[in-house]
Every structure is written in C-alpha cells, then in structure tokens.
Amino acid sequence: MSILLSIVLAVQILSALAMIALILMQHGKGADAGAAFGGGGSSSASLFGASGSANFLSRSTAVLATVFLACTLGLAYFGNLRQDAPSSGSSVLEGATLPAAPAAPATGTQIPGQ
Questions:
Q1: What is the model's pLDDT at position 63?
Q2: What residues have CB less than 8 Å from 25, skipping those under 6 apart?
Q3: How far apart are CA 57 and CA 19, in angstroms?
Q4: pTM of the predicted model, to two decimals?
Q5: Nearest-angstrom CA–CA distance, 78 and 82
Q6: Where are the extended beta strands (E) located within 40-81?
Q7: How far apart are CA 57 and CA 24, in angstroms?
Q8: CA-CA distance, 113 to 107, in Å (whole number)?
Q9: Do residues 56 and 7 lie in contact, with contact meaning Cβ atoms separated by under 8 Å?
C-alpha cells in the first residue's frame, strides 16, 4: 500500500511541475493585441503552425490537470485508509493532549508594574 501511495504522490508532483511549465509557456489573452500591431513574429508559428501551439498547450494542460485531480482524489482516499488514523469517524482533536498549565507565581514575589 505504501508503494502505491508513493507512486501516486510522485505522479502528482510531476504533473504539478509539468502543469506549471505548460502554463508559463502559454500566451496570455493580451499577447494577441501586440501581434495586431506588428509585434508577432513568425518564429512561434514554425513549430506548431498558426494556431496549433495554443491548441496543443491548452489540451496538454487540461490532461495534466485531470491527472493532478485524480492523484489528489487518490491521495485523499488512501489518507483515510491509514491504520493510525482515528477510527469510528472521530475527530483528530479528540486524541490531542492539552499542554501543561503554567506554574503559578510564588507567593511573596512582586509582580512588575505594581
């Protein structure tokens, strides 16, 4: 079970990093306005075609987002199956211990400011 959990976690981390890279490579909506004034070069159209870059990057981002969501749901499911988790639907706070109370000041000592 821990091997499967590690694999799902690794896939989630890799998909998150790939999604970050793909999102940063995409053009924003304001990039089209700059191309209208002659700022758009032909170098971006050489690899994917005129509109192929936007379609490829956006579809790849959607696929990675789906993988990321599936891994997140899988990790949440496996997190509830742990043996050390509290049973019978109890709260995590029910098993918490309270810190010790601070010691009372000794009698006969003067409190600063009085």
A1: 94
A2: 57
A3: 10
A4: 0.56
A5: 7
A6: none
A7: 10
A8: 16
A9: no
Residue 47 tokens read as 């690899």
Q: What is the 8-class DSSP label of residue 26?
A: S
Question: 73: closest CA among 1, 11, 3?
Answer: 11
Nearest by Cα to 67 from 16, 5, 2, 106: 16
- Tens of pLDDT, residue by residue over 39-67, are 555 554 445 555 555 688 889 999 999 99
Q: Using CA of residue 103, residue 104, residue 107, residue 113, what is the dihedral sign? A: positive
Contacts with 61 (C-beta within 8 Å, 6 or more apart), sequence order = 19, 22, 23, 26
Rounded-to-integer distance, Cα 34 and Cα 89, Å:
57
Q: How far apart are CA 3 and CA 110, in angstroms?
A: 61
Interatomic CA distance for residues 55 and 45, integer angstroms: 13
Q: Residue 82: how many CA atoms within 13 Å on its side-chain side?
A: 10
